[in-house]
Amino acid sequence: MEYRKIKDDDDEVQEDNDVASDLESLKGKSHTVASSNIALATLGGGGGSTERINWKRKGVVTCALTILTSSQAILIVWSKRAGKYEYSVTTANFLVETLKCALSLLALTRIWKNDGVTDDNRLSTTYDEVKVFPIPAALYLFKNLLQYYIFAYVDAPGYQILKNLNIISTGVLYRIILKKKLSEIQWAGFILLCCGCTTAQLNSNSDRVLQTSLPGWIMAIIMALLSGFAGVYTEAIIKKRPSRNINVQNFWLYVFGMAFNAVAIVIQDFDAVATKGFFHGYSFITVLMILNHALSGIAVSMVMKYADNIVKVYSTSVAMLLTAVVSVFLFNFHLSLAFFLGSTVVSVSVYLHSAGKLR
Amino acid sequence: MEYRKIKDDDDEVQEDNDVASDLESLKGKSHTVASSNIALATLGGGGGSTERINWKRKGVVTCALTILTSSQAILIVWSKRAGKYEYSVTTANFLVETLKCALSLLALTRIWKNDGVTDDNRLSTTYDEVKVFPIPAALYLFKNLLQYYIFAYVDAPGYQILKNLNIISTGVLYRIILKKKLSEIQWAGFILLCCGCTTAQLNSNSDRVLQTSLPGWIMAIIMALLSGFAGVYTEAIIKKRPSRNINVQNFWLYVFGMAFNAVAIVIQDFDAVATKGFFHGYSFITVLMILNHALSGIAVSMVMKYADNIVKVYSTSVAMLLTAVVSVFLFNFHLSLAFFLGSTVVSVSVYLHSAGKLR
Questions:
Q1: Distance, CA of A327 to CA of A334 (rounded, Å)
Q2: How would you class A21 by CB atoms within 10 Å of its CB: exposed for 0-12, middle for 13-18, buried for 19 or more?
Q3: Optimal mutation site among B204, B335, B352, interface A, most CBs of chain A within 10 A
Q4: H helix intervals, chain A
Q5: Contacts with A359 (C-beta within 8 Å, 6 or more apart), sequence order
């Protein structure tokens, strides 16, 4: 009942056309949700178990994201070892979005069968709800286009290092846009997460990144901001309607993802697809990678719904370290001293994030 | 007056011959001192200014140690650039101890002239007070002898990396021997200090240290424990008698330092000294280095008296980073990405040490 009430409040806000004020209002909403959760919790037994279910759900989606991201990286290494990418990446991305859409619909049909169709789980939507959904997909498309240009200024290993700026940009935008507070200890943890991830990736060529020219730095920072903004904005969209079924929200997000990726196919791979066909170069690993990307994508949405961007960043960072450890056994990787140091720093950072929680 | 009372209590404990119980009793003492400080502080204006003077003194000795350690490293780089060490290191160490002894005596004569001779600043001592003073000097001598053997298992850059184990051993022994508590956040900071210092020193050859054989690791750990134990034990000795003048305590520490270094000259450099003379190969830089080592040694004692081993470790770690930054200007050093990452981790660690203070 609490949730319904919030949703009704929410609908009234729909009149505002300004995205900034939508986000502003989200802050108020999330406070309301938090306080209603507390209200539920203080109502006794039932509230305690709601709290517990929330925690359990948060834990499950976070673990799923970590494992999926980690196996994603392993599949990439595997596919690289098996040979170069022969397929067009844009068609694979399009299939990932299509699969996510299909999986969301599948989940919804099950829910409709069990619970019936309600306001919260019906697929039909309003312009007010749907108008912001293309924005994250557009931001990612823009970021991916920029990626082609940054390689004129930075080499691939350097780009891997600079990508860790995403961690800082996500933290800063999370603070500014979602207006959520981290404690000083948690900020310290977040800076350490960025340092630890970068340290773990250090190799003998890493110092080259310091010679990056000013345009290279500016592009890296813009890309980090775009990526951080897309993540934080997705969280804002999904959390704006706490009672709205996540599968409906995902469905609409992914529909726009499909549309933007269709545009990308036309821009980048039209000739290859026209001459060699849509599925040229696909292999068993490609199919596995598409499946994995689709599931990770859904896990990211779930983390945004039930946890937040900070948890997402921690989860994918820990996944990076897990990948390296698993690769030791799978591919005879050698772990460097820098990796051990970076992993220790990341572990301490995870501890600080939990120890530093604002009361 | 409070301090005198504590000293009297202290003298009664002198009957115990067991070092362990001496250390155990120290714990009680330091609590008494702390509570009497609080008692003084709560007495009003006078107490507040005592507190302030303590803080000021702690700050001054810590800064002095940081600057001296940092300039020490710069002098070492300078002397290496000027050519190889031509003098025997043992004679230089002996002169360092002698100079420290002389400076302590000089300070004492000034104090005697101003305040007169009291129980706290008289040079004469008892067997009970002095019996533990040779222990740190003996531990350092033993550690320095081990240093010759560890190079059979680890190369010099690898040894520099392994020396960071000192940080962890100091923290652990500080906890076990001095029974002083660090908060969990401070422990997190201490682990980060070790990781950050090691990261800052990483270079393309650092990974070789991971191939260190078991005997190499064991020796490195023993050396770290010896060094940590010597430091913590010195603090125990100096803090056992809070009212005893630090210059008297230093005098006795350094007298034993002179004796042990005289032994080292005979063991290691007898032939060179006998044929080429005591001062063979001394240059202007050598004299500067001896002066700097003597002053740093005194600063270490002061930090042990007015702060503790944890502050000492932080101070010398920050000094290492300062040295690198100064070397950029003096010697055209290039700072690596690893250095920036390590420095950031150390900076966060310093913040955590202060933010995590137990209330």
A1: 9
A2: exposed
A3: B352
A4: 2-13, 19-42, 45-82, 89-115, 127-130, 134-150, 156-162, 165-177, 184-200, 214-240, 246-276, 284-306, 309-331, 337-355
A5: none
List pLDDT tens digits, range A267-294.
888 888 899 989 888 888 889 989 999 9
- Polymer length of chain A: 359
How far apart are the C-alpha atoms of A40 and A19, rounded to whole Å? 31
CA distance B350 to B315: 10
Radius of gyration of chain B (CA): 21
CA distance B243 to B6: 8
What is the rounded CA–CA span in Å between residue B35 and residue B181?
16
| Nearest chain B CA: its distance from A190 CA (Å) | 10
Rounded mean pLDDT of chain A? 82
From the number of C-beta atoms within 10 Å of its C-beta (0-12, 13-18, 19+), residue B316 rates as buried
Token pair, residue B12, equals 């009664």
* Residues in chain B closer than 8 A to A204 (CB atoms): 204
Selecting from A161, A207, A348 the residue whose C-beta is nearest the C-beta of B192 gives A348
Q: Which residue of B has its CA nearest to A210?
A: B337
Mutation choice for B interface testing from A165, A167, A184, A337 by most B CBs within 10 A: A337
Measured between CB atoms, does A350 come within 8 Å of chain B? no
Closest chain A residue to B162 measured between Cα atoms?
A: A337
Grouped pLDDT means (10 residues each) for chain B, 359 residues: 34 33 38 37 51 86 89 77 72 93 95 92 90 90 80 83 92 92 94 96 87 91 93 93 93 93 88 89 88 93 92 92 87 89 96 88
Nearest Cα neighbor of A205 from A165, A160, A158, A163 is A158
How far B325 CA lies from chain A's nearest CA (Å)? 16
Q: How far is B39 from chain A (nearest CA, A)?
A: 32
> Which residues of chain B have a CB within 8 Å of the CB of A210?
336-337
Chain A contact present for B336, CB below 8 A: yes
Contact criterion met (CB below 8 Å) for A247 and A104 = yes
Structure tokens given for B298: 């005194």
Q: Please give the structure tokens belonging to residue A87.
A: 């397929």
Residue of A nearest to B335 (CA): A207
User: Buried b vs exposed e over B88-127: b needs ≥16 C-beta within 10 Å?
Assistant: bebbbbbbbbbbbbebbbebbeebeeeeeeeebbeeeeee
- Nearest CB to A192: which of B192, B207, B356? B192
